[in-house]
Design a protein that fits this description.
Layout (H helix, E strand, L loop, with lengths): L1 H10 E3 L6 E3 L7 E8 H20 L2 E8 L4 H15 L2 E7 L4 E5 L17 H4 L1 E2 L2 H4 L5 E6 L6 E6 L12 E5 L9 H18 L7 E5 L8 H14 L10 E5 L7 H9 L5 E5 L2 E2 L2 E3 L9 H21 L4 H12 L12 H12 L2 E2 L1 H4 L8 E5 L13 H5 L7 E5 L22 H7 L5 E5 L14 H7 L4 H7 L5 H15 L4 H13 L3 H11 L5 H10 L5 H14 L5 H10 L4 H10 L5 H14 L5 H27 L5 H9 L10 H9 L5 H11 L8 H12 L5 H13 L4
Helix pairs in contact: 2-6, 9-10, 16-17, 17-19, 18-19, 18-20, 19-21, 20-21, 21-23, 22-23, 22-24, 24-25, 25-26, 26-28, 27-28, 27-29, 28-30, 29-30
C-alpha cells in the first residue's frame, strides 16, 4: 500500500485549491499537450479519454490529464498554468466536458467586429465568450462575477495594464457537448474521443479534397471576391486541383435550394476540409438569400407573402383585420380573392418549408454523417459553445469522420482574412498550431486540436518546427525560399515575431518581397505584418496594395488607407473608388472611407481625376459623385457637432463618440482632444473619447493622441479616465 501511494504521488499532483489531479504523461515527447476535463466527464468517459491520450502520445506529444471540479475559470486556469510551468514546452490543451466559460469584457478591440455597448446591454449579451482567457497567458484579467442564472459562465474584465493584443501562449480547443441536448452527453463525448483516437491511428492522409462554399449576402455577394479566392486556394491546396472533384468552389447562386447539394458534399468520405463562408446564428447557417422573383409568378408570390405577413403581424398587435385588408385592397388594387390563402394552414406550411430551405438547421443535421475532417464556419455565432445549443456541435457529435471545427462565439467581420495560413494544413501542421497563429477573441477550435494531415512533401518537419524551433532565425530565413506559399508566409511571420516588428532591415525586405512575389497569400501576409508598424514602408505597401491583382489584398489595403488617413494615397484611392466598382467590397470600403481624409484634399483629388479621365459622361458623373461625397462629409459634421456640443445629453454625445471606433476621422483629432482635455466635459464623454481614440492605431495623428494622453496621465484625473488613457496608450503601442 505504501509503495502504491508513492507511485501515485509521483504520477499525480494535487492542487490545494480545487482537489485537482494532474496525471503525468505515460510517454515521452519533444513537446507536451494537456487534456483538461471535469471530474464527472472523466469518470463517465475514462476509457475513451485514455484511448485518446494514448493516441496523442503515439503521435509525438507527451500528454497530461488535468481533472478537477472547477466552479470558476480562474481555478481551472491556475492548474493549466501549473502544467505549463511543469511541462517545459506545452504545445496545446483541449478543454473536455463542462469546463467553466470566461465571458470577457473591456476587450472588444481584440475582436474583429463585436462592438456592443457594455453599459447599455446585459453582461450575458455584451461580453465575449473566449478561451483566450485560458491559452493567452500574457493577458491580465480581473474577476467580476459568476453568472447567477448559468453558473458555468463567469465575467472577467481585461485590465488596462494588460497587453492589448492577442499572442496565445499555446493553442486550445473545446470538446463540449451542448448543455441543452437530451440524452447522455458524457457518452457522446466518449464516442467522439474514440473517433479522434481512431482517426489518429488510421491517419488522415494528405489534403487533396477541399470544398468551399460562399453563402447568400456574404461579402456583398461580390463575384470578384468569390472568384479571386481560388487564386489563394491553388496556393493553399495544390494537391486538390489534380482531379475534377478534388476542389469544389460552390456559390449560393448555383441552386435555389443549395443546402441539399451541400449536405451531400458533407457526406463525401474523401473530403478533407470543408469551408462555409456565410452568415449565421447559433443554430443556423444562412445558405441562400430570400428569392428575388425572376418571373411574374415569383414576384406575385413574394408580394402576396409580404402582405400576408404584414396582416398577420398587425392583427397580432391588435389591429382590425377586415379594415386592414380593405385599406390594402384600395392601395394596391386587389380583389377579395387575393386573401383566400391568408388563413389556409397549408399555405403557411409551404411558406415555412420554403423559408427553412434557406438555412442549414439542426433538424437537417440530426442523423446526418459529416465526413469532412475539418469544417470551418466563417460565420457569426455558429461556434457559440457557451449556449445550450450551437450548430458546430452537430458536425462533431455524429458518426461521421469530422474531428475538428472552427467557429465563432460572436459576430465576425466579413472583411477579415478568413483563410490566412490555412494552407499550413497541407504541410502537416496540427489544426491547433494553425489556429494559434490566426487567433481572435471570438474565434475558437472545437474538437481535436492535435489532428493533422500528412504533409504533401516528404520529410517536411514544419509541425515540429512551429513548436520547437520558433526562435530559429536561420531555419525561418531558409524557408523563405520554399516553393510553397504558406511555408513562405509563416516563415515571414515567425521572423517578424522574433524581431517584434521594429527591425528596419527585415521590414525593408518584407516590402521588397511584397512588391515582387507572385504569390497572392504571401503578399497578403506581408501586408498584415508590415501593418504592425506605421512607417513609410507600410505606407508604400498600402498605396501599392490598392491596385493589387488579388482582391483581398486590395480590400485590406483600402481599409488600411482609411485607418491611416494619409493624403499621399488619395490619387490611387480615388481612381480605384471610381473605376474598380466590380470589386464590391473594395469599393464599399473606399467609398465609405473618403470622409476619413480632409474634405478639401478629397475634393481636390476628385477634381484632378475627372479633369484627366476619358470616362463617358464624365462631367455628369463628377457632379453626382461630388454631391454624394459632400453629403457624406455633412454627416461627419453632424456627428462632430453632437460630440462637442455641451448642451446635448451625455448619452447622445457618447453614442456619437462610439461611431469613431469604425470611423477614425483623422482630420478632427484636434476637436476630440480638446473635448477630452476639457475638464468641464462630463466624465462619461471624456472616458468614451479616451477609449475611441484607442482605435486610431494607424492614424497619421497617432503621435498627437499619444502626446495628449501621456500629458493627461501626468495630471490628476478620476480613475475611470486614467484607466482608459492607460489602455489607449497601450493599444497605440506607446506604453
Amino acid at each position: 500500500m505504501k509503495a502504491w501511494n508513492i507511485l501515485w504521488c509521483l504520477a499525480c499532483t494535487l492542487s490545494a485549491g480545487a482537489q485537482t489531479v494532474i496525471e503525468q504523461p505515460t510517454a515521452k515527447g519533444a513537446a507536451a499537450f494537456a487534456i483538461v476535463v471535469d471530474n464527472q466527464t472523466y469518470e463517465a468517459a475514462r476509457p475513451s479519454i485514455m484511448r485518446y491520450r494514448d493516441a496523442v502520445q503515439a503521435d509525438g506529444l507527451a500528454t497530461y490529464i488535468v481533472r478537477g471540479d472547477w466552479r470558476l475559470p480562474h481555478e481551472a486556469k491556475a492548474d493549466i498554468e501549473q502544467v505549463y510551468r511543469q511541462a517545459g514546452t506545452l504545445e496545446g490543451i483541449v478543454l473536455v466536458g463542462d469546463i467553466p466559460v470566461a465571458m470577457v469584457r473591456n476587450a472588444q478591440h481584440l475582436t474583429t467586429a463585436f462592438k456592443m455597448n457594455e453599459e447599455k446591454f446585459p453582461p450575458r449579451e455584451s461580453s465575449v465568450p473566449s478561451d483566450r482567457y485560458y491559452d493567452d497567458l500574457h493577458l491580465k484579467f480581473d474577476f467580476i462575477a459568476q453568472d447567477s442564472v448559468t453558473p458555468r459562465l463567469s465575467y472577467y474584465r481585461l485590465r488596462e495594464d494588460s497587453p492589448q493584443e492577442l499572442s496565445p501562449t499555446f493553442y486550445s480547443a473545446r470538446i463540449a457537448c451542448p448543455a441543452g441536448w437530451e440524452g447522455d452527453r458524457h457518452a457522446r463525448i466518449a464516442v467522439f474521443l474514440d473517433k479522434c483516437a481512431q482517426r489518429k491511428q488510421e491517419g488522415m492522409g494528405r489534403v487533396d479534397c477541399v470544398v468551399s462554399f460562399n453563402g447568400g449576402s456574404y461579402n456583398s455577394d461580390c463575384l470578384v471576391a468569390w472568384m479571386d479566392e481560388e487564386k489563394a486556394y491553388r496556393e493553399n491546396f495544390p494537391l486538390a486541383f489534380a482531379r475534377s472533384t478534388g476542389f469544389k468552389h460552390w456559390n449560393f447562386r448555383t441552386e435555389e435550394r443549395m443546402k441539399y447539394p451541400l449536405l451531400n458534399e458533407l457526406r463525401r468520405e474523401d473530403t478533407d476540409i470543408f469551408m462555409f463562408h456565410e452568415h449565421g446564428l447559433p443554430t443556423k447557417q444562412l445558405i441562400n438569400n430570400d428569392p428575388e422573383g425572376d418571373s411574374f409568378g415569383a414576384r406575385l408570390a413574394l408580394f402576396k407573402r409580404a402582405l400576408y405577413q404584414d396582416v398577420r403581424d398587425a392583427t397580432e398587435q391588435g389591429a382590425d383585420e377586415d379594415s386592414l385588408r380593405l385599406a390594402l385592397q384600395r392601395e394596391y388594387g386587389l380583389t377579395t380573392a387575393f386573401w383566400q390563402g391568408l388563413h389556409d394552414a397549408s399555405y403557411w406550411r409551404e411558406d415555412s418549408a420554403r423559408q427553412a430551405d434557406l438555412y442549414i438547421n439542426p433538424e437537417d443535421l440530426r442523423g446526418t454523417e459529416t465526413n469532412a475532417s475539418f469544417v470551418m464556419f466563417d460565420a457569426c455565432y455558429n461556434g457559440s459553445f457557451q449556449d445550450d445549443d450551437y450548430l458546430a456541435a452537430y458536425y462533431l457529435f455524429n458518426p461521421g469522420r469530422t474531428v475538428a471545427a472552427q467557429g465563432n462565439t460572436r459576430n465576425v467581420l466579413q472583411d477579415r482574412w478568413t483563410i490566412e495560413l490555412l494552407g499550413l494544413m497541407s504541410h502537416g501542421v496540427r489544426i491547433g498550431q494553425y489556429n494559434r497563429l490566426v487567433a481572435t477573441l471570438e474565434g475558437h477550435l472545437l474538437g481535436d486540436p492535435t489532428a493533422h494531415f500528412e504533409p504533401l512533401a516528404e520529410g517536411c518537419a514544419l509541425r515540429d518546427d512551429l513548436t520547437l524551433r520558433r526562435k530559429d532565425e536561420a531555419l525561418w530565413t531558409r524557408l523563405l525560399s520554399s516553393p510553397y506559399a504558406d511555408v513562405q508566409a509563416v516563415a515571414w511571420r515567425m521572423l517578424a515575431d522574433m524581431q517584434g516588428g521594429d527591425d528596419g532591415a527585415l521590414r525593408a525586405r518584407m516590402l521588397e518581397a511584397f512588391k515582387s512575389t507572385p504569390l497572392n497569400t504571401v503578399r497578403a501576409e506581408l501586408l498584415k505584418l508590415l501593418a504592425r508598424k506605421d512607417d513609410a514602408l507600410f505606407a508604400e505597401a498600402v498605396r501599392r496594395g490598392i491596385d493589387d491583382p488579388y482582391e483581398l489584398v486590395a480590400r485590406h489595403s483600402a481599409n488600411y488607407a482609411g485607418e491611416r488617413g494619409d493624403t499621399a494615397v488619395l490619387r490611387a484611392y480615388v481612381r480605384a473608388c471610381v473605376e474598380d466598382t466590380e470589386r464590391q467590397r473594395v469599393n464599399y470600403l473606399l467609398s465609405t472611407g473618403l470622409t476619413l481624409f480632409p474634405e478639401a484634399d478629397v475634393m481636390a483629388a476628385l477634381g484632378r481625376y475627372y479633369d484627366s479621365t476619358t470616362r463617358q459622361d464624365a462631367e455628369a458623373e463628377r457632379k453626382a459623385v461630388v454631391r454624394s461625397v459632400k453629403a457624406q462629409f455633412a454627416r461627419v459634421g453632424r456627428t462632430n457637432q453632437r460630440i462637442a456640443d455641451p448642451s446635448l445629453p451625455v448619452a447622445t454625445r457618447v453614442n456619437a463618440i462610439r461611431l469613431l471606433r469604425n470611423n477614425p476621422y483623422h482630420p478632427h483629432v484636434a476637436l476630440y482632444l480638446r473635448t477630452l482635455q476639457d475638464e468641464s466635459s462630463p466624465l462619461p464623454v471624456r472616458v468614451a473619447l479616451a477609449e475611441a481614440l484607442g482605435w486610431f492605431t494607424h492614424s497619421v495623428r497617432r503621435a498627437d493622441i499619444v502626446a495628449a494622453a501621456k500629458d493627461m496621465l501626468e495630471q490628476e484625473h478620476p480613475e475611470p479616465l486614467r484607466a482608459e488613457l492607460e489602455q489607449t496608450l497601450r493599444r497605440l503601442g506607446a506604453l
